[in-house]
Task: structure prediction
Amino acid sequence: MNRKSDSDKNKRGKLYYSFQAISMVPLLLYGIVVIIFSSTSFRHSMQEQVYTELRNVAFLVDTLLDTAYPGDYSLVDGKTLSLYKGDVNITSDYTLIDGIRERTAMDVTLFYQNTRILTTIKNWEGERIVGTQAPTQVLTDVLQEGKSCFYDNVIVRDTNYFAYYAPLRNGDGQIVGILFVGKPAAEVNGQVNRALSPIVIVGVVLLILACLFSVYYAGRFLKALYGLKSFFSQVATGNLSEELDPAILKRGDELTELGRSALSMQCSLRSLVECDTLTELYNRRSGGRHLACSVEKARSKNTPFTLVIGDIDFFKRVNDTYGHLCGDEVLKSVARLLRKHLKDKGYAIRWGGEEFLLVYENSRLEDALESLRALQEDINSTRILFEDTVVSVTMTFGMACDPTMDLKDLLREADDRLYYGKNNGRNQIVTCCGGKSQQ
Result:
């Protein structure tokens, strides 16, 4: 039975997966959205930072050129194109822009009109790619409209750049060229990814921990729920001895209240099924099961055991004289005395009608006899008030004390001694000593 119960508790049904989905899916979606949003925002912020650096470097280059070479830009067309700044031919002077490249890891290019004159960008052979032109969109935005612009998809010699283009102006404000400052997109993305990776990793770890936390507590909740389900199933099939998982009663939430209600229901059902409604003692059916267990326990552990069958003397006369309601009051009063004397010693069973079976667990015959004599005195001295009538009764008892005997034989022996007492004066205790009955 317990094995089946454990199997039912561990069985995962639709509720398990539905509950896990309800607790996990929103959490996963929320976590994924937060990670994506945070990553996108962080990437955008990093790119904005790169754009700011590009603009600052462009401003620095423009300022250094004006400081190092005062004057306007002009192009002298000889055998080769020569770009002058003031009176200085800067066409082959890469000192300034190469220094910027070394310190900032950013490429610098000067266009005169639309032609690349000075640049730090080189081809696969290590030659500077001078003489090439800027993209058409850049010429329109910067050279013609005079705007400073950022681009994140500028391709120069098969390399994608994050780039900042600014117009080059002479002293009169005329736009004569373009200043380019760029950083390879692969380097920018690598820098962003390196900075973003710890954030993503922490986010994923926190999401996993949150999911595990959710699964753990959802599992605890479902375990308690399945425990209650199993408990109700066992009670519904008649197993009124099923034990409720103690963890349910320790939760301190609504499931604990439900568990307490379930135990209360079990107790009520047990009383209805196992107890005699009038005397509140075990009825014959449930008492017989308890008796069989007690005999087997005494036999296996080799402990003393005493069985007593008692019968109210002349009970039919009480019913015939005072009525069955008075007889019921007599039965209830006797049952109360039986419970009182058997407390911590054993239990009593209403065996049928006015007949009761008393079980003394772990009690030798002498001890049980002493207790039984005290019980007999209490019964004899008890006065039962019913309406305007006072009724008193006596009882006769037969005892048996050998748990090694078959239960049927043990009951028969106690019953024989009871009837011996009934046929020999009543209001007496008949014991078993050396196999002989005596008063």
In short: Confidence is low (pLDDT under 50) at residues 1-10, 433-439. The chain has twelve helices and 16 strands. The longest strand covers residues 159-169.
